[in-house]
Structure formats: C-alpha cells, structure tokens
Specification:
Shape: elongated
Order of helices and strands: EHHHHHEHEHEEHHHHEEEHEE
Number of helices: 12
Number of strands: 10
Largest sheet: 5 strands, mixed
Strand order of the largest sheet: 6-7-8-9-10
Distance between the termini: 46 Å
Radius of gyration: 23 Å
Structural class: alpha/beta
Length: 369
C-alpha cells in the first residue's frame, strides 16, 4: 500500500471547532456577565488569533497564550475580569464539545478499513483528548500527536517516525525509476510545525552517535567551512541509515541533509524546493528576526546570510567527478535562480552550497555572496 498512514488536523478538518469554540465562549459570557453577541465574539477572536499567531512564531508558550488572550480581550472590551478563571472555564467547556463536521464520521469509518488514521494538533492536550474520547470518530483514530505530549512513545526507526509525524510526505510531481512516488521532508502546516519541530531535532540527535556532529555541521554551514561540513555530513550518513544500493538513495540523502539543517540558530526551519522531475534537490534556510536564541549572545543575528543548498547525486563517479558534481550543483543555484528571492531584512547576503553524493562519499563547495 502506497499510503498506509493518514494524518488529519483535528479542528475544522474532522471537528467543527467554530461551533465548539462559540459554545465555550457562550459559557464564559454567561458565567462572567459578559455581552454575548457577534461583535463581542469577533473581538475575542481577534485577540485569540493574534496570540496563536505569536505562538506559531515561537514568541510565547501555550500556557501563556491561553490566559493572555483573555487578558487582551478584557482590556479591549474595557471590563475587569479574571483571565485565568475565564480560560479555565473556556477550556473545560471546549473539551466537552465533540461536534463533527458533516461526513467526518463516515470518512473516518471507511478509511480506517484500510489505513491507520492519526490526528496531528498543537491545541491544548487536555481539550483534544477529551473531545476525541467523546466523539463518534474515536473508534477509527489510532492515536493523536499533540505538541504537549510530543515526547510520548516515538517509533524507533527515524524514517518511520518522520512519516508518521507528517514530516515525510509524498511528492506527486515525480516518480523514481522503480515507479515509487518521490518523497520530501517538509513541514506541511503550523499544526505539524509546532507540534513536532522539537521532536525531529531530538530524533536526529538520537540517531547520530555523536551529537557533536550535528553541532559541527551547523557551525560549518553558517561559517562557510567546507571541510567541517563535509566531515560532519560523512559521519552522519551512516548513523542515519543510508544504505548503499537502496532504491531511493537520493531521497534518503536529501532527507538527511535537510534534517540536519533543522535547529540552525537564528534560522527558520529548512524548506525543500526540490524539483520532482529532475536530479536537482534544493533546500533553503532563511534567517528569522522573530525567534531569538543563544545566537543573540554572539551577535550572529547581524551576520546571517540566506543559505541555499543544492544537492546532486551521481552514482559511480570517481573522486574528480564527485568534486565536479558539487560544483555543478552550486552553479545550478545561480543558473536556475533558486535563491533569486528578496533577501529577508535580517539576512546579510547569500551563501550557496553545492553538495555531491555518489552513494558513499560526499563533496561540498561553498560560495558566499
């Protein structure tokens, strides 16, 4: 079976969150003597959505946002209420709502006959567990991946884990020689991004025998140190399960390379721009001015370039051919305009990396603009 696992977002995919959210708001208004009308609810939604957007950008914790949204709401409304108490009632009431969207139960029942179904959500765990337990789709859902429970049981095999989490996705734009769909490593939406970003970092740290290898890769990538990047990547390839001769060798190598790019200080998560119908595999890591970390301490945020990586795979080439493969990958970044985008404000220039891989050895070349 090509797709044994199916992942669903919970809210407004299976569950009618809008209806449940309004019911919870009604309960808060009744208990705390607040006006319960469409205008007041729209004001609450603006405050609520603004806080969830801040959470998605990594600017606050979930525990903070669920209370702060009510604090901001009451301030805008011009009333004095206890935001923590209102939030507690809101979450309790929300957890008791199990309204489904039309045909959600029928879809889950039918798909569960041939697939394993999972929920992926970054919502409050207690609310989602309660809603799932009360819902008609519960018998058909194998499990739920929830951000607060992200450290719960994880599959031992990193590639299985990536697939189950939604990171390893099928790319329908191309096929490999044996007819299988090509795959890519990506973050499909904010739900998966926040629920499992730290998990993917932990998986790679656990899979690589020496976690210092990942640190060396990150440091070399940011400094343009070709030798450091080559040595670190060579060490990681074997640890992360790339076997010589496997049918999807380029895919596995691309996944390793992109996975190692997660967690760069001061950068967003890596995104793949791979073309499914060519031998070119592209990755970009874009600086972010929203998430500040230890990089601030060292002044790195003022020196971060836009990093673009292009990988090429050529089995059976000699040492010189491997080096030329990396150079060709580098040149294609400019030729195809892969990094021809407006550089984000915090970025300083561009850094281009060309990677060559023959199934066992790697070659790298860097260009700083």
């Amino acid at each position: 079976m090509r797709y044994p696992y199916l992942l669903f977002d919970a809210d407004n995919t299976l569950f009618d969150f809008d209806r449940s959210n309004r019911a919870a708001f009604n309960a808060v208004c009744a208990a705390f003597s607040l006006p319960d009308d469409d205008e007041t609810f729209a004001l609450y939604e603006r405050c609520n959505n603004a806080m969830w957007a801040a959470f998605d950008r990594g600017e606050c914790t979930k525990d903070f946002l669920v209370v702060q949204r009510f604090r901001n709401f009451f301030s805008a409304l011009g009333v004095d209420r206890d935001p923590a108490a209102c939030n507690e009632l809101h979450l309790h009431t929300l957890g008791r709502q199990s309204f489904l969207l039309p045909h959600a139960e029928e879809v889950c029942r039918e798909l569960s006959r041939s697939h394993k179904l999972y929920l992926v959500t970054n919502a409050v765990a207690s609310v989602q567990r309660s809603r799932l337990a009360r819902s008609a789709v519960r018998p058909y859902i194998t499990d739920a991946f929830i951000s607060e429970e992200a450290d719960a049981a994880k599959p031992e095999d990193i590639w299985t884990a990536l697939y189950l989490s939604g990171f390893l996705t099928t790319d329908m734009t191309g096929h490999s020689e044996n007819g299988a769909c090509l795959r890519s490593l990506r973050l499909p939406n904010n739900e998966v991004r926040q629920a499992l970003r730290l998990v993917i970092l932990e998986w790679f740290e656990c899979a690589v025998e020496d976690v210092g290898v990942i640190d060396s890769f990150h440091d070399g990538l940011c400094r343009g140190d070709e030798d450091a990047v080559k040595q670190a990547l060579s060490c990681a390839i074997g640890d992360l399960g790339i076997d010589v001769g496997q049918s999807d060798m380029p895919t596995a190598y691309h996944l390793v390379l992109q996975g190692l790019c997660f967690g760069l200080p001061g950068y967003c998560n890596p995104s793949s721009k791979r073309s499914g119908v060519s031998d070119r595999w592209d990755i970009q890591v874009i600086p972010t001015g929203r998430v500040f970390d230890v990089a601030d301490t060292f002044g790195m945020l003022d020196e971060r370039p836009l990093i673009t990586i292009n990988m090429m795979y050529g089995p059976g080439v000699d040492a010189l051919g491997l080096e030329l493969l990396a150079v060709q990958a580098l040149l294609e970044i400019e030729r195809d305009g892969i990094d021809d985008i407006r550089v984000p404000r915090p970025a300083v220039g561009r850094m281009r990396w060309g990677f060559g891989f023959d199934g066992q050895r790697v070659s790298v070349v860097c260009q700083r603009l």
